[in-house]
Amino acid sequence: MILLISLSVFLATTAAAAGVYWFLEARKESLPRRLKEVVGASDAPAEGGLESAGRWFDKIRSRFSFKPKADSELLEVLSGKELAGARLLLNQAGIRSAGAYHNYLVIRWVLPVALVVLAMAGGKIAGVTTRSLFLMVLSAGIVGFLLPDFVLRKKIRKRQEEITDSLPDGLDLLVVCVEAGLGLNAAFVKITEEFRLSSPALSEEFDVVNREMVAGKPRQEALRALSERTGVEEVKSLVAMLIQTEKLGTSLAQSLRVHSDSLRMRRRQKAEEAAAKTTIKLVFPLVFLLFPALFIVILGPGIIHVINVLMPTMHK
To answer: Does residue 202 lie within any of the structural domains?
Structure first.
C-alpha cells in the first residue's frame, strides 16, 4: 500500500510537470507556426533532412498527443473568471507586486505536494499503519490546497476592517480640506500624508487613486477601481456618492459631511452590536471553564466531608 501511494504521487507529479512542459512548448511554437503560415511555403528556405524529420515528428506528436485549443481560446481560458478573481483577491489583500500572481499560483500548487511528501516521509519514519498513513497524506493534501486561500482571505478581512474603521476619520479630514478650498485631488494627497502611520491601508488606496488621476485616468473610473480594489461596502457607497455629486453638480462638502455622519453612526452601531454580543459569547467560557472550577472549590470540601462521615457507617 505504501509503495502504491508513493507510485501514485510520483506519477501525478510527473504528469503535472509534463503537462506544464507541453503547454509551454506549444505556446513557444505558436508564433513561428503563424509566421510560416503568413509568409507561405514558397518564401520558406529549403529544409534539410534533419528539419524535415523534425517537422514530421512534430506532426506525429500533434496528431497523437493533446492538441491545445486556439491561442485566443487559451487566452480566454487563462484570463477567465478564475484569473480575474485571483488577481482581485490579491489586490484586495494589498499584494500588488509584479510577480504576485505567479508566486501565488506556485504556492497554491507546490504546497500540497510538499505537505504530502512530508506526511509520507514522517509517517514512514514514525512507522504508522497503512490506514493512518493514508489519512495523513489525504489530510496534508487538503490542508495544503486550502491553506493559501484561507491565509489570503484572512489578510483581506483584516485589511478591510482597517479601512472600515479609519474611513470616517478620513472623511472628516476630506470635509475639512474641501471646505478650506482644496480640490478633490489635493484632498486625497492630504489624506495619504496624514494617514500613512495610523492607517497604511487607507493611505495606500487614496494614493493609488490620486496617482491614477494624475496619470490621466478619468476620476469616475479611478473611483470605481477604488471600490473594486477594496471590496468595502462603505467605500462603495462613498464612491457612488462622489460620482453622483459630480454628475448632478451638488455641494461636495455638504454631501461629504452627511456621508461622514452616516458612516460614523454606522460604526457606533456596529460597536454597540459587538458589545451586546459579548454576554452571549461569555456563556461558553463560563460554563466550560469557570463553573467547573467554582464547583470544585465550593462543593469539594463538603463532598469530602460527606464521604468521610458516610463511609464508616456504610462499612458497619
So the answer is: yes
Which candidate, 63, 72, 64, places its Cα nearest to that of 34?
72
Task: Specify the number of domains making up the chain.
Answer: 1
Q: pLDDT tens for residues 114-144?
A: 888 888 888 888 877 888 888 888 888 888 8
**The pTM is what?**
0.61
Range of the domain at 179: 159-268
| Residue 215 belongs to some domain of the structure | yes
Asked if the structure places residue 263 within a domain, the reply is yes
Distance between alpha carbon 262 and the CA centroid of its chain, in Å?
30
The residue whose grid cell reads 461596502 is 233
Instruction: Let me know if residue 172 belongs to a domain.
Output: yes
Can you read off the three cell numbers belonging to residue 307? Answer: 464521604
Q: How far apart are CA 196 and CA 94, in angstroms?
A: 15
Residues of the chain with pLDDT under 70: 1-12, 15, 17-84, 313-316
Cell numbers given for 154: 484572512
